[in-house]
Amino acid sequence: MDEVCANLLNAYGPFAVFLLLLLSGVGIPLGEDVIVIPAGVLVGHDRLDLFSTAVSAYLGVVASDLLWFSICRRYGTPLLHQRWFKRFLHPRRLLEAKHQIERRGTWVIVMSRFIPGSRTPAITMSGMLHLPLWKFAVAECSCALATVPFQLGVGMLIARGVGAENTARLIQTLVGTVMLVLLLLLALGWFGRYRAHHKRFPRARAAWLRRFRKKKA
After folding, report:
1. How many CB atoms within 10 Å of residue 185?
2. In whole angstroms, what is the distance from residue 62 CA to residue 164 CA?
3. Please, what sign has the CA dihedral across residues 149, 142, 24, 118?
């Protein structure tokens, strides 16, 4: 897959960067780093223009995530009323999760950008539980301003013989591990406070979940 992406980048330049990233928004498993870092390598070798590549990469990252978010929001939420899903997760737990997404969903999206393997599940969950679009867009656009230049920069350093692609993944893994530990500590603290006072966890209104119940013929 890496070789195919590299060939497309060589042939079609910044347009290929945007197109390949957009494909990941419809479920094709193309890692962002698999596309953006090689694009940075080509920029470092003066085979791609830095500005047009950076703009294409940024727009591609944001557009692909917004596309997948919209698909999950439109078609994923009705799955919550499927019998097999109810066996997996009780509706009350869903409403509790919905409440937390409304309160803290922006930070979930931000942290998922740095925790390996969590980006797609976080976007899927946020879409299905209807995180407000503006909150998702703010988190996504802000994070991409950091991750896209970082990955392009790594690619340019590789082109100059400094570091390797594994170095970028190692840095991201280390940052993600720290953020995951902090997230778990915050979650445990929140859980402990409610348990200590014997309170029920806050929930969203049940009317939100009823909207997606299938109507009987």
Report:
1. 10
2. 25
3. positive
For every residue of 105-167, DSSP letters joined together read HHHHHHHHTTSTT-HHHHHHHHHHTT--HHHHHHHHHHHHHHHHHHHHHHHHHHHTTS--HHH
Of 138, 152, 85, nearest to 109 (Cα)?
138
Tokens of 112: 């998922």
Phi, psi of 162 (to 5 degrees): -110, 120
For the stretch 78-118, pLDDT in tens is: 777 677 666 666 666 777 778 778 887 888 888 888 776 77
Whole-angstrom distance, CA of residue 130 vs CA of residue 205: 13
As a whole number of angstroms, the distance between CA 70 and CA 133 comes to 9
What lies within 8 Å, CB to CB, of 105 at 6+ separation is: 126, 129, 131, 132, 135, 136, 139
pTM: 0.76
